[in-house]
Automatic annotation (TrEMBL), chain A:
Single Gene Ontology MF annotation: transmembrane transporter activity
Organism: Roseisalinus antarcticus
Chief subcellular location: membrane
Start and end residues of each stretch annotated as Disordered: 360-379
Name of this protein: Ribose ABC transporter permease protein
Swiss-Prot/TrEMBL keywords: Cell membrane, Membrane, Transmembrane, Transmembrane helix
InterPro entries, per the entry: ABC_transp_permease
Top-level taxon in the UniProt lineage: Bacteria
Organism ancestry: Bacteria, Pseudomonadati, Pseudomonadota, Alphaproteobacteria, Rhodobacterales
GO cellular component, one term: plasma membrane
UniProtKB/TrEMBL annotation, chain B:
Keywords, sorted A to Z: ATP-binding, Cell membrane, Hydrolase, Membrane, Nucleotide-binding, Repeat, Sugar transport, Translocase, Transport
Protein family: Belongs to the ABC transporter superfamily.
Source organism superkingdom: Bacteria
Stored CDD domains: ABC_Carb_Monos_I, ABC_Carb_Monos_II
Protein's UniProt name: Galactose/methyl galactoside import ATP-binding protein MglA
Membrane topology per record: Peripheral membrane protein
């Protein structure tokens, strides 16, 4: 017997969290003397009111899909991969290496090669923390955080050193034109839809959606996914069943790192068309919130990524057109993360009580441990 | 009855969601008596006692203590009403001394010293009165389980308990320790204390209680004087139909040797020697029972045989050695060699509690040809297979889509058994097959194990329940401190001898026990 119907778990709780975050944000905006109504209007029109706005929203959402999926896959093996940021930076390096030094005749093969390289670099960056966790028990949270700093430093070195383009900027040369990805303007133009030329959303969006489907199949349909989930639920049981903890930790983290790395085809190859400093811009961390809000399910990640894409683009519009500082936008985004991610139980527990009460019976007191089930609680 | 009952419950009801855990329960327990409460898992015994101890609030009904209606909203109220509880799983701070544990939560003031001094003299008095001697300065970590249980009893008495509730107190004790416990309880009874003993062991009820109440599915089905009843009658009251308390089996006809274990040793990460030179054989068509108090190396033995613990020594299956260096995740190779394993702790190891029944039916065998298609799982095939197995093993409800945690303990165990037995192993490892399983299901599980033996399979049965070992095993090996203390035949030994072996004593030829 589940405590709540499934729809309440996957739709109602995130929705309530979101509304609470919005209300609190409204108070913050009110507090600094601006109109919350105006602000929300501006966010919606700025992010969703034009193909230009949509183009940015979807561009951000593409980043968040990759990093959100990365965190989700690791979550299923009960690994907390905080290193999405560093893995995405390394993915950028992978893209740059392939596109700067090898001439490609067409963007399609260039995209394939860049994707493979970005995934390989991202996976490699996750491999060492994964190995240290699997063999030495070094906590993955700590090591992946540290690897974020190392990644940033490595990128700095590459961009002021060996890979630096002539000139003042710490950046690589622009990638050859043949490798530039078609934007949504180009793609929708084929079928006669007029899409803003300026917005950066590009063909990577479809790669990200394909990745959502692939991750769904991996986790819920393959034997490997079955083993990953089993390990995540119970390590002793996994060992009993002959599932190697070492293998699962390594494989899950490599897939996770690879997905985070793949983000670079969007922001590095698709948007900047060269590698610049701090290319990931925090998308690796947003991925954690996206995975939490999306319940580590690819469909949830997809929707949460869209939401955060909206918040990013809408927030940028706010900073541009209203007297709201950039920092306050971050506060609003943080409120959303706080409510949807960290304060999940604040909404969940009262809601569970309501649902149980609605079944006409009194709610059971919380059991002594997670293992006790409703059938046994009757003992 | 002119006397006032020490405890009287009137019409207690309690529901958890749609489950009626207690339905209109009334009992009267006279002061200075031992009252047993017996029932299957899930019958509502623990819920009832939790209500009495203030953990749960009853939906309906009244509690009367010594003739006074008493509200017990929390355990503090229970303690001040003179009720003490000894839990199945002790609630002691492992790195505190006995004295500190007794005082914990009952300190007289902000300063510890005076409380400890008072407690020390109090403990001494209690120890003399009730044969409850413990060293007040021993650290809990260093004393045995029986001793820890005495500390729990002392804790309750120190808080002035007149009514003592013990929940499955003998689960972790050797027979000798259990006897000692019963002597203590007799002593407490003589001093006028009232004792409620919750158990599922019929023998304990018969041995020590004055009256007994039987619970079934949340209801009190009978309350009788112990002297006027018998084990078969109580079993029938518990289950609601006649049950076989003894497994019916023919003598074993052992054939070829299936497994040969020689000089198995394990030293764990902390350098503790867990298995010390364990050797035995099991032949096709026989059950080797391993008796012993929990924590004497049986779990490690099962883990090595099941392929998820490292060891030195040798294991041969049908004369072929198996690799023991394979690390801690070599279960797949064991299964390939015809070893199936029903682990001791089905919730921790045997099942993924959040997986559905059908996902669990493939667990450990998910790479089998029948269950896979390429890199994918063949979900349809597994579901169909699960339905068949649930039917054959009478798993209720027979719904493959329910998660493992929504089944009762007995049905969870049937899912594990169905998975392992139906895989047609040469050797079946079974750990605690009936722990937390109701009597009706116990009968079924025992029959399945014997049936598998009669099909010519070798079976290693590990159990802390001596009755189970004596009833099922064709040969009995007793483990103590990582060693096999000796092998006996069930019809040439008794609980007393096995109990001594379980406590690490060997019987010398003269018949006097001596330290091994």
């Amino acid at each position: 017997m589940d405590r709540m119907p499934r729809w309440a778990d996957v739709i109602l709780i995130p929705l309530i969290s979101l509304i609470l975050a919005a209300l609190l944000s409204a108070l913050v905006i009110l507090f600094i003397g601006e109109s919350p109504i105006e602000a929300i209007k501006l966010m919606i029109s700025g992010a969703l009111g034009s193909t230009y706005g949509w183009g940015y929203t979807l561009y951000y959402a593409t980043n968040f899909m990759f990093t959100g999926l990365a965190v989700s896959v690791a979550f299923h093996a009960r690994m907390f991969n905080i290193g999405g940021e560093g893995q995405a930076l390394l993915g950028g390096l992978g893209v740059a290496v392939v596109l700067v030094y090898i001439p490609w005749p067409h963007w399609t093969i260039a995209l394939l090669a860049a994707t493979a390289s970005a995934a390989a670099f991202g996976a490699a960056w996750a491999a060492l923390p994964a190995y240290l966790q699997a063999r030495r028990g070094s906590h993955i949270v700590i090591t992946t955080i540290m690897f974020n700093f190392i990644a940033a430093a490595l990128l700095n070195w590459a961009l002021v050193g060996p890979m630096k383009a002539p000139g003042q900027e710490p950046a690589t040369v622009s990638f050859p034109e043949a490798t530039n990805l078609p934007t949504l303007h180009d793609i929708f133009g084929i079928i006669g839809i007029d899409w803003s030329r300026a917005a950066p959303a590009n063909v990577s969006l479809f790669v990200a959606i394909a990745a959502c489907v692939a991750v769904w199949a991996l986790i819920w349909r393959t034997r490997l996914g079955y083993e990953i989930r089993a390990f995540g639920y119970s390590e002793p049981a996994a060992r009993y069943a002959g599932i190697s903890p070492f293998k699962i930790i390594m494989v899950a983290m490599l897939i996770s790192g690879g997905l985070a790395g793949c983000m670079a085809i969007n922001n590095v190859q698709g948007e900047a068309e060269r590698l610049v400093l701090n290319a990931a811009e925090g998308a690796g961390f947003i991925g954690i919130a996206v995975a939490l809000m999306g319940r580590s399910h690819p469909l949830g990640v997809f929707l949460a990524a869209l939401l955060f894409g909206f918040l990013y683009q809408g927030g940028a519009e706010l900073a541009l057109w209203m007297n709201i500082q950039r920092e306050l936008i971050v506060v609003i985004q943080a409120l959303v993360i706080l409510f949807t991610g960290a304060l999940d139980n604040m909404i969940r527990m009262p809601l569970e009580k309501i649902f149980l009460a609605a079944r006409r019976k009194s709610p059971p007191p919380p059991g002594p441990d997670r293992k006790s089930t409703s059938a046994e609680a009757a003992e | 009855m002119s006397q006032t009952p020490a405890i009287e419950l009137k019409g207690i009801s309690k529901a958890f969601g749609p489950v009626q855990a207690n339905k209109d329960i009334s009992i009267r327990v006279m002061p200075g008596t031992i009252h047993g409460i017996i029932g299957e898992n899930g019958a509502g015994k623990s819920t009832l006692m939790s209500i009495l101890y203030g953990f749960y609030k009853a939906d309906k009904g009244e509690i009367w203590i010594n003739g006074k209606k008493t509200e017990i909203p929390d355990s503090q109220a229970a303690i001040s009403a003179g009720i003490g509880m000894v839990f199945q799983h002790f609630k002691l701070v492992q790195n505190f001394t006995v004295l500190e544990n007794v005082v914990l939560g009952a300190e007289d003031s902000g300063l510890l010293r005076p409380s400890l001094t008072r407690a020390r003299s109090e403990l001494k008095k209690l120890a003399e009165e009730y044969e409850l001697s413990v060293d007040p300065d021993a650290v809990i970590d260093d004393i045995g389980v029986g001793m820890q249980q005495r500390v729990e009893i002392l804790k309750a008495l120190y808080r002035g308990a007149d009514i003592l509730i013990l929940d499955e107190p003998t689960g972790v004790l050797t027979p000798a320790e259990a006897d000692h416990l019963f002597r203590i309880l007799e002593g407490l009874k003589r001093e006028g204390k009232t004792i409620i003993l919750i158990t599922h062991k019929l023998r304990e009820i018969m041995d020590i209680t004055d009256t007994v109440s039987v619970m079934r599915r949340g209801e009190m089905t009978a309350t009788v004087k112990t002297a006027d009843t018998s084990p078969p009658e109580l079993a029938e009251l518990m289950v609601g139909r006649k049950v076989l308390l003894r497994v019916e089996k023919t003598p074993a006809r052992p054939k070829e040797k299936i497994i040969e274990v020689r000089d198995l040793n394990i030293t764990d990460d902390k350098g503790v020697h867990r298995l010390k030179g364990v050797s035995f054989d099991i032949h096709a068509g026989e059950i080797l029972g391993i008796a012993g108090v929990a924590g004497n190396g049986q779990s490690e033995l099962l883990e090595v045989l099941g392929g998820y613990e490292k060891a030195t020594g040798s294991i041969k299956i049908r004369g072929e050695a198996i690799d023991l260096t394979g690390g801690k995740s070599d279960g797949a190779s064991r299964r390939a060699r015809g070893i199936s394993h029903v682990p001791e702790d089905r919730q921790r190891e045997g099942l993924i509690m959040d997986y559905s029944a059908w996902e669990n039916i493939a667990f450990g065998y998910h790479h089998d040809e029948a269950y896979r298609s390429g890199p994918f799982m063949n979900n349809a095939a597994i579901r169909a297979d699960c339905e068949g197995k649930m039917q054959r093993f009478d798993v209720r409800p027979p719904d493959p889509n329910l998660t493992a945690k929504s089944f009762s303990g007995g049905n969870q165990q049937k899912i594990v058994l169905a998975r392992e037995i139906e895989h047609n192993p040469d050797l079946l490892l079974v750990g605690q097959p009936t722990r937390g399983v109701d009597i009706g299901a116990i009968e079924f599980i025992h029959q399945e194990i014997v049936a598998l033996r009669d099909k010519g399979k070798a079976i290693l049965l590990v159990s802390v329940e001596l009755d189970e070992i004596l009833g099922l095993a064709d040969r009995i090996a007793v483990m103590f401190d990582g060693r096999i203390m000796g092998e006996r035949l069930p019809d040439q030994t008794d609980e007393k001898e096995l109990g001594l072996l379980m406590a690490g004593m060997t019987t010398a030829p003269g018949g006097t026990p001596q330290e091994a």
